Structures are given as structure tokens and as C-alpha cells.
Amino acid sequence: MDGMKTMAYIQSLNIGKMQPEIKDEITILEKVGNNDYIADYKGVKCHALFNCFVCAYFADDVYRREK
């Protein structure tokens, strides 16, 4: 499976902002829990979640990296 490409708010691009505003493309690789996904962002595997209230993914490539 190649994964699903989608846009997401990226933690490293939005640090220090009161509201996230910068999105970039991620690839959802697998679902590992209830609303917990492993995503790839520019070669970095990290956790992402989907916020159904704003219909957007949020990827944490700073604090929730996969080894």
C-alpha cells in the first residue's frame, strides 16, 4: 500500500503560533489507534490525528516522531 496523501497542519511549521495556519502534504501510512495514525512528512515518520470539527489532520513531526 502506498498510503493516502492529504494536507495537514504540521507542528514544526506552526510552532509559536496561536492558531495553526500552515499546511503541507503528508502521507498516512497506517492507523495505529483510535484516531492515531502514522504519517510520513518529508521522510519523517510521525503521529497524526484527524480533527473532525475542523476536518483536518494535524501531524506532530517535533514531539511525536516514530523511530
Short description:
This protein is mainly beta. It is 6% helix and 63% strand.
Would you give an account of this structure?
By secondary structure, the protein is mainly beta. The chain has one domain. It has one helix spanning 11-14, and strands at 4-10, 23-33, 36-41, 44-51, 56-65. Strands 1-2-3-4-5 form a 5-stranded mixed β-barrel. Strand 3 and strand 4 (44-51) form a beta hairpin. The longest helix is centred in the N-terminal third of the chain and has 4 residues, at 11-14. The radius of gyration is 11 Å and the shape is globular.
List the topology elements.
Blueprint: E1 4-10, H1 11-14, E2 23-33, E3 36-41, E4 44-51, E5 56-65
Parallel strand pairs: 1-5
Antiparallel strand pairs: 1-2, 2-3, 3-4, 4-5
Instruction: Going across the biggest sheet, name each strand in turn.
Output: 1-2-3-4-5
Task: Classify the secondary structure makeup into a structural class.
Answer: mainly beta
Number of helices: 1
* Amino-to-carboxy terminus distance: 20 Å
The percentage of residues in β strands lies in: over 45%
Low-confidence regions: none
* SSE pattern, N- to C-terminal: EHEEEE
Domain count: the total is 1
Principal-axes shape call: globular
State the major sheet.
Answer: 5 strands, mixed, barrel
Percent of residues in helices comes to under 10%
Please describe the structure with a list of short key phrases separated by commas or semicolons:
67 residues, mainly beta, 6% helix
